[in-house]
Amino acid sequence: MRLLNPGPVTLTPRVRAALAAPDLCHREAEFFDLQDEIRARLIAVYGLDPATWAPIVLSGSGTAAVEAMMSSMPGENARVLVIENGVYGERMTQMAAVHGIDHDTLRLGWGEEIDTAALAARLAGARFTHVAVVHHETTTGRLNDLEAIAEVCAKAEAALLVDAVSSFGAEAIEFAPAVAAVAATANKCLHGAPGAAFVIARRSALAKAKARALYLDLVAYGEKQDARGTPFTPAVPAFHALAAALAEHAEAGGWPARRAHYRALAGQVADGLAALGIDAVLDGRHSSCVLRSYRLPSGVSYDALHDRLKAAGFVIYAGQGDLAGEIFRISTMGDLDGQDMECLIIRIAEITAR
After folding, report:
1. How many CB atoms lie within 10 A of CB 66?
2. Which residues contact 321 (CB under 8 A, 6 or more apart)?
3. What is the DSSP letter of 45?
4. What does the CA dihedral 225, 228, 232, 236 come to, rounded to 10 degrees?
């Protein structure tokens, strides 16, 4: 089965084999060696300085990493502006509310481009200490302009919290001065297994963090991991898989090579679907390399398209909310190649043939 959903992804044989690595006690040196390797490889993905950035590895999904960031990084008397242009921005707002963090929203339509002038106006004269944004909003495939947003935040002296769950490892991420933390996961662009996630936090910002949860307290994790420890029992098999995935990622050329590979596959799909009269939701210039959304063909329901493709060995993804009956989504993450995309287009052509 070829997974074309936005995570978990189709694993390589090497990563799948790593899940069966020897059992480790999480209080022994062998586990801490594994944890140290993962942390070093994580900050190497974007060439970060470990003296400035703390890689913090968690057991859980990408949402766990985002919630750890959202609940921990805003310190005392913080006020957060959450930018919403999809489901995952809205989820960050929910996290702020659950943890009792003073917050407000810049609410946009799903897939709408973030107007940095409007953001600057919203921040001007307001007492926002932090801005939270999703880099790649998989609701529609919109890739938000992180660099421009960071520039606005820097001028407003607001720290930026970034959900990079579905962009880390394949899209360009500028760890600009305004960026306080970036949350991501193993089982998307890095091609690891579900169960491991992480936050890369600026150490100076982490020093001002506040614990609002027990299990998701980034300060506790950071202190323990810096001292070759762990506060709780980790998902050891997922850590083994992440280490293998990070090694593969580096050996293949890092995030630029992965982005190029994804772009080639995404372009192949877009061209093939366009030839069938199936329109993309967003212009390719505004979409990520990771995932794109398409209008359902006339007369074909999502369920029918999904079920027939699954029978042919491909799993696609539905739209969310009001888009559920209008679009379908295709991700090009994981152990996929051009031949897979060619077969996919052939199957869709058969399904949509009159």
Report:
1. 29
2. 87, 110, 139
3. T
4. 100
Residue (of 216, 208, 217) closest to 130 by Cα position: 208
Q: Which three-class secondary structure state does DSSP give residue 304?
A: helix
Q: Left (φ > 0), alpha (ψ -120 to 50) or beta: where does 74 sit? A: beta
Q: What is the dihedral of CA 278, 282, 288, 293, to 10 degrees?
A: -40
Q: Give 79's strand partners.
A: 102
Letter for the amino acid at 232? F
Instruction: Note the pLDDT tens digit of each residue in 62-91.
Output: 999 999 999 999 999 999 999 999 999 999
H helix and E strand count, the chain: 12, 14
Instruction: Kindly state the tokens that stand for 330.
Output: 């295709």
pLDDT digits (tens, 9 = 90+) for 98-126: 999 999 999 999 999 999 999 999 999 88
Q: CA separation (Å) from 264 to 52, 260, 290?
A: 34, 6, 11
- What whole-number distance in Å separates Cα of residue 222 and Cα of residue 9? 28
Nearest-10 Cα torsion for 29, 35, 38, 41: -60
Is 0.85 topped by the overall pTM? yes
Q: 280, 270 in Cβ contact below 8 A?
A: yes
The terminus-to-terminus CA distance of the chain in angstroms comes to 27
Determine the average pLDDT of the residues in 188-209: 98
Structure tokens at 145: 């302009």
| Confidence at residue 354, expressed as pLDDT on a 0 to 100 scale | 59
Looking only at the bridges linking them, the beta strands covering 79-84 and 102-107 are parallel
Residue 251 φ/ψ region, left for φ over 0, alpha for ψ in the -120 to 50 degree band, beta for the rest? alpha
Kindly list the distances between the CA atom of residue 205 and the CA atoms of 15, 178, 258, 260, 337, in Å, as whole numbers in the listed order.
33, 10, 30, 33, 40
SS3 state at 344: helix
